[in-house]
Amino acid sequence: EDKVVQSPLSLVVHEGDTVTLNCSYEVTNFRSLLWYKQEKKAPTFLFMLTSSGIEKKSGRLSSILDKKELFSILNITATQTGDSAVYLCAVEAGETSGSRLTFGEGTQLTVNP
Amino acid sequence: NAGVTQTPKFQVLKTGQSMTLQCAQDMNHEYMSWYRQDPGMGLRLIHYSVGAGITDQGEVPNGYNVSRSTTEDFPLRLLSAAPSQTSVYFCASSYSGQLGSSYEQYFGPGTRLTVT
After folding, report:
1. Separation in Å, CA of A104 to nearest CA in chain B
2. What are the start-end ranges of the E strands in B14-57?
3. Based on the number of CB atoms within 10 Å of its own CB, is B68 exposed (0-12), middle (13-18) or buried (19 or more)?
4. Is residue A28 over pLDDT 90?
5. How distant is the Cα of B54 from the closest Cα of chain A, in angstroms?
6. What is residue B5's predicted lDDT score, i.e. its pLDDT?
């Protein structure tokens, strides 16, 4: 059974702090790992990672994948109150590309002013 | 493009009633999925489809049926609603992979279902 575990489950920080969110996985036939942001509505896509060691970056957010140790991290620098959300990690696995995603529980990030 | 649309946004059912949650996408995506989201459990895959006429079960398929007669539509049917099906339901779609490529899934706005 495919498994995705995120930590911490919740995190409270002050504006300007840097945070690191963790995602570990155990799946058969790994294809990709995805990060989503969810703010009381549908998840919105952040990053897709398929190769180890290559950092994906978008503004203050960045993410990297380690396929040997089976984990990924999502970094957010200089946090803002607008970063408050649930961050979801999902892994696509299987023999063919498709729509089977296994999600972690999510990390609830709260950024206080 | 409207992207992925879902109807209704909210629904209250009594135990034993049946209903269909609608999902449509206008991006010509081959892959479509249904997830449910419960507090503390993330999103769990109910059913998915890799193309018109092809569907398969996900992690939590019991009590739900799907069909995919067109590329655009992927309705989810609750056969006999139970309180355990109270949840938020998300439909998602994505491009098909070429030569093993993967693509991100686009999510609809969700349907909040309460079964009393």
Report:
1. 6
2. 19-25, 31-37, 43-51, 54-57
3. buried
4. no
5. 12
6. 96
